[in-house]
Amino acid sequence: MPIYSILQDGGHYDDMNDLNNAIDLAEILLGGVPDGEKSTFTVENEEGHLMAAVTNRRIVGHFLKQQWDSGDNAISMGEEDFDATDYILLMKPDDVRALEDNRETTDRIGQAHVSWDGPHQVTVQDSICEFFGVSSVKEITDEAMAYAKNRLDPRPATEQTVKLSVKVTVRVVHGASVSEFVNNLDCSVISNTTGITVQSTEIVASD
Total domain count for the chain? Predict the structure, then answer.
């Protein structure tokens, strides 16, 4: 008869011979965690294969904004934390297992949440491991990904169009054309809100 082990943050809690009962117990145990305390209960089979992770944690990435100085050194320009839970759970398991901090794989995750055109560093691996109760992202199984996805029902980002009215005061020298100014105008919009990135802008002249 197979044995399924329940662990709390890596420490052994109990064993059961039915997978569903073990997961149900993990859910019950998580419900008893005091408010404000974070914990992850994992269910593993006899071979140590992760079957499910039950947690009240979120996957939080860290985005370090940088800028090149005159000596081509990257200097810090601020930091932002972002919730990457839905993004990660919508990824393919193989892609999650291949993630490396401060590499292109994690850069894409950071850029999907934080608007920044300069150099940067993105770290998220530790938070992913805490979420799934593992020591390495390579230990995250297809089963654990499927269970977390079903449990939290992650949603992909959506595109919305926001119409803004901008009043521009210009100084016009004699002979200059305001209509030409409008036709040749360049305008950029920068998001300062974590979780919202600007995809495109279009200038629409008022009648």
Answer: 2
pLDDT at 207 over 60: no
pTM of this structure: 0.87
DSSP β-bridge partners for residue 8: 11, 41
Long-range contacts of 5-13 (CB under 8 A, 24+ apart): 5/43, 5/44, 5/45, 5/46, 6/41, 6/42, 6/43, 7/41, 7/42, 7/43, 7/44, 7/133, 8/39, 8/40, 8/41, 9/39, 9/40, 9/133, 10/133, 13/41
Same domain, 14 and 83: no
d(CA 144, CA 132): 8
Q: Does residue 197 lie in a domain region?
A: no
pLDDT, tens only, 34-86: 999 999 999 999 999 999 999 999 999 999 999 888 777 888 789 999 999 99
Query: Are residues 38 and 80 both part of a single domain?
Result: no
